[in-house]
Specification:
The complex is a heterodimer of chains A (about 100) and B (about 260). Chain A is mainly alpha-helical. Chain A has one domain: Helix Hairpins. Helices cover about 80% and strands about 0% of the residues of chain A. Chain A contains 3 helices and no strands. In chain B, helix 1 runs antiparallel to helix 2. Chain B is an all-alpha fold and about 260 residues long. Chain B has a two-stranded antiparallel sheet with strand order 1-2. In chain B, a hairpin with a 5-residue loop joins strand 1 and strand 2. The radius of gyration of chain B is 29 Å and the shape is elongated. Classes of the chains: A mainly alpha (about 100), B mainly alpha (about 260). At the A-B interface, helix 1, helix 2 and helix 3 of A face helix 1, helix 2, helix 3, helix 4 and helix 5 of B.
């Protein structure tokens, strides 16, 4: 087996996450798909670290995890705020700027 | 020349066992209707990725993945799911016509592009492996990089984390614009508005249905189930049990007048 297989897996998971962001309507599921995309990117970073024989890729993957945690905290707080005022977690309902 | 990195058989077996499962779980995340099931499937993908990290010599990242993602982040997701509850946005119906075919076409194109590019790309050298870099221990190696070369990004990231925590607190803070209604005012409003049906409070579930679970509607005096006795969340989830099956079918309802 070649190390490229990890990169293929990462690309596939990233694509699935991207489809989920576009297709699903529940804001929480959309957030989970963003998490999936970040995780797929992390897998490729870890694989590149192993290919290059340095730990830099792992350090950057660690930074990505911290950024993902920040993103989840703020994003879920926004979802809760929207839910509190509109009683809906659907991304189609938050369309005030359109009208 | 001997290759620098040989991948052992157990790792190959592990990859071909876990990779299809994680892709299936990720696909299932898109296809299942309930957000809670999506969260569980995502947790599975994250645990498999943690195993991949450990198999690839990133022991510290694998443990952090389990602690941060499957521990903290998924717990936060489930917590928010419980807070927000279930609503119509869980359904898989398409609201923008033609969105799904376009999305799938774009995804197949993008994924095909990525995979074919990866197949063609070459780094011009053999994979090195992490044996030398991990010689003094994976955690020690990462710490040495983190506190020398990456110390400035590390500080910036910590500022970002604190900002995010403060931001979440600001967003979650709720300020009342009107005074909280007292119990007396609530009681008065119940009698003043609409019908008197709910004045004494909503009926409890399971009443007269020979079953006292919360998902069994109460029976009204005429034998029909009372929809207001069931939580709206259970109703939206479709978890309501029909109370007709708990009725006595051979009850003699004729009233015999005593002499």
């Amino acid at each position: 087996m070649s190390l490229d297989n990890y990169l293929y897996l990462s690309a596939i998971l990233f694509t699935i996450g991207a489809v989920g962001v576009v297709v699903r309507r529940n804001a929480i599921v959309v957030f989970m798909c963003i998490e999936l995309m970040l995780n797929a990117a992390n897998l490729s970073l870890v694989t590149f670290a192993r290919i290059n024989g340095t730990l830099d890729g792992q350090v950057i993957a660690f930074f990505t995890m911290v950024v993902a945690a920040c993103e989840v905290v703020v994003g879920l707080a926004i979802i809760v705020t929207i839910y509190r005022s509109r009683r809906s977690a659907s991304i189609d309902d938050a369309s005030l700027l359109k009208r | 020349m001997e290759p620098l990195l040989t991948i052992q058989t157990p790792e190959t077996v592990l990859f071909w066992f876990l990779a299809p499962l994680s892709v299936l779980a990720a696909l299932g995340m898109l296809l299942v209707k309930k957000a809670v099931h999506s969260a569980l499937l995502l947790a599975w993908v994250m645990v498999s990725l943690a195993i991949f990290y450990i198999a690839q010599g990133a022991v510290f990242l694998g443990i952090v993945q389990v602690v941060v993602y499957t521990g903290a982040v998924m717990m936060l997701f489930l917590f928010i799911l419980m807070l927000v509850g279930v609503d119509s946005s869980d359904s898989l119906t398409e609201t923008i016509t033609g969105l799904r075919p376009i999305a799938i076409t774009a995804a197949v194109g993008f994924g095909g592009l990525m995979v074919s590019l990866l197949g063609r790309a070459t780094l011009g050298r053999e994979p090195v492996g992490l044996e030398a870099a991990n010689a003094a221990g994976n955690v020690q190696g990462i710490a040495a990089l983190l506190f020398s070369k990456y110390v400035w990004p590390f500080e910036v990231i910590s500022a970002l984390l604190i900002t995010a925590a403060v931001g979440a607190m600001v967003l979650a803070h709720h300020q009342r614009t009107t005074p909280r209604p007292t119990q007396r005012e609530q009681s008065t409003n119940r009698f003043r508005t609409g019908s008197l049906a709910g004045a004494a409070g909503l009926p409890g579930p399971g009443v007269f249905a020979r079953h006292n679970a919360v998902d069994v509607p109460a029976l009204l005096p005429d034998g029909t189930p009372a929809p207001s006795s069931i939580s709206a969340t259970l109703k939206a989830r479709g978890d309501v049990i029909d109370s007709a099956q708990f009725q006595l079918d051979n009850v003699d309802t004729t009233v015999v007048e005593e002499k």
